[in-house]
Design brief:
5-stranded antiparallel β-sheet; 14 strands
Length: about 900
Amino acid sequence: MTDQLERLKTALHSRYTVERELGRGGVATVYLAEDLKHHRKVAVKVLRPDLAAALGPERFHREIEIAANLNHPHVLPLLDSGTAEEQPTALPPDRPTAFLYYVMPYVDGESLRDKLAKEGEVPIAEAVRILRDVVEALKHAHKHNVVHRDIKPENVMLAEDHALVTDFGVAKAVSDATGAIGLTTEGVALGTPAYMSPEQASADPHIDHRADIYSVGVIAYELLTGRTPFVGTTQQELLAAHVTQTPDPVTRYRESVPPALAELVMKCWEKKAADRWQSAEELLPQLEALATPSGGTTPVGTVPVSAVARTKKIVLAASALAVVLAAIVFVTLLPRGSGVALNPDHVVVAVVRNATGDPSLDQLGERAGHWITQGLQLAAIQVTPWVQALRSWTYVQTESQAGRVRDPIRALAEETGAGIVISGALYIEGDNLEIQVDATDASRGRLIGSSAIVTGSRDDQRDMLGDVQQRVMGLVAVRLEEQLDYLPSEMLGSAPTFEAYEAFSEAMAFHHRQEYSEAILHFRRAYELDSTWAQPLLRMNSALSNLGRRAEQDSVNALLESLGQRLTPYERALVQAGRGTVDGNLQLALLGYRRAAELAPGSPAAYNYANTALRLNRPREAFDALQPINPERGFFRETPLYWQVLADAHQGLGDFEQALEAGRRGCALHPQDAGCLHKQAVALAALGRIEEIWPVLDGIEASTSVRYRRRNLVLVVEALQFYGHIEMAHAVAERVVNWFESRSSDEAASTGHRRLYGRALFLAGRLAESQDVLESLVHEYPESVEFRGLRGVIVATRGDSVQALQDAEWLGELNRPYLRGQHKYWTGAIAGALGDRERAVDLLRQAFTEGQYLYPWSWSSLELDVLRDYPPFQELIRPKG
């Protein structure tokens, strides 16, 4: 297995650092790994090779995706799944070249199987609690039409005092595979034989959620007796027993099991599904009743109900003594005093205060704190364990009531070392309950965020607590998210659900890699999960703008505008900027981004402010806008965009050495980034150090982004031409053309390749070939402004004024939305190529007024080459601020 571990490390190295094997099951091998993106421990489960081969990636991901849609405190969530490709070199022909894997949080605990192996039967109260948690998870899954099919102790993890069910969706995928390849190994068929319902054992094709109820009965039997009900030497014997034999009563092996509990277990066991508990929803109240004294069991730390009346005073005295003892223990063991260093990334949760005046709801506040803590643990957020938090809060409350603590929130932080304290209150509004939770920066004593108010009735407290848990997980995750930590709390808006935050975080990863189409899909998913959160729409707006998808951007911006006062001032400023971008009003966009940057210094709004200033040919303003940004923190640490814009600002100001340094620093932090390499080449061209451009070209050709390397190769040629290095420009242009012609047939067939290949041919002086490429693009995309315009420039340069004028006329008559001056830009470029430079500059001036960019590197565009020495054009491109 060492060989597989090493292969897996190599295959997953870009996303996970695989550390060691944790164990093997019939379905998958489990490895401990670190998630490199979120810096958290995870469990990576790799499907058995024969199962992976039978399933195939598509069917596997379709089934495993089921788990991604389950969100419940007792369901271990699916974090990721995928196909990890191996390098095919030097692999034996019979070895698979890919792993099918899925990723779940690493639970620092044990499985129920581990517990049973060590202890055998468990205390009755603990058994009921574990069963209740499992059935709660099944209730949630069945509500979403998900049947587990393989409920067994190996698939129940124990964390602190909670049970979590794992591997939803896996059994269905495996059953598909076993049906395809006929596997019968234990743990791989349609379930695990010792826990399999009669309908599964007899291969009934009509299996529903009641099969899971049967398996719960088997687990209950084992928890209470230390043994499974049937014992067989072979798999076939076990399967036959489930179909034909009646198990011995639980009480035969453990007489202390209450009759109600024994009856509940046996009803799970009915051979006919119609005779069992019909749903987890029906079974859950039975377990809830058993978990209370009146239900027939005596949980640890309680007094039987029959003795309550005569021992009330003793119990109260004991409780008071316990509080005092707890205080004494904490005085001894926990840090005291205002000098305690608080960890800004550590969270502690207080009991939610009962402000209803109804003492019967006191327990709900404690349960809320417990659920919130558990949710934060599952989100891999550093949080004080609930048992310790509860004891600390009890001590703080005691001290506060005695007048020895002025600020309970600060005191709780000092007790636990947590920099963030979660607190809240429970209210009654009409017939409903309401909970709102706050997050406080304990070091500064200020509120850093609040959850939306969660409303529910007394009858659906669990759903209400689940909503609170999601909101607080989202609130804390957002406040700890480096991508957003530049935003003051009052500018962040409402806290999202954790599901929405996770989708947003995934979208941002794509956005950093400039994979905007994928980012848009995940931003949309984040908004669908929580439509009260504006951040996904704002970022989607940016991605759509980068792709030039104006109609979609317009729709998203209109949706944001409709939110009105629900948005924070920062968000409204960004919406104003988005409106200016869509409409081609760059002055309006500049005002919006400037305002947003003032409200949140150092944020991406400052970058957008600088970028928009550059588009208006204001490099000094762009440079100043970048100054509050720390490029090695948060959003900017993950992307080279800051360095690219900084280089452009220096270039526009004529500070070429500084532009070169900015490009180099960007590449030092983001090796092989084609954009930063291009900025170096432009600066070198301006400095006349053209021989140093060759190794920069090598770097661009080796960069990982096909889209950006071909674009930046062409831009290097244009920069050389603009700064007067004509011979070098032609030599590089030939190299770039050869590079385009060496691409694979699939890549060469893409529109992006052909568009830039045509420009490279033009720069190399191969006008006829360039025209052929553009003719094919115009034929394929007859409504494209750019293709029609570039063809017009090429034919005008070749002397075909008739075709050039026809293209100019077509462009001049255009009247469609979102042109933003693009048609006038190309009409002006054609006029310049035909020798009418006065008309060309006039049209370009109109184009820039209507929203066409006057970016510094746009000055060197090949279509404007004939205007370089024309004084009105030189005045037009002179920096304005």
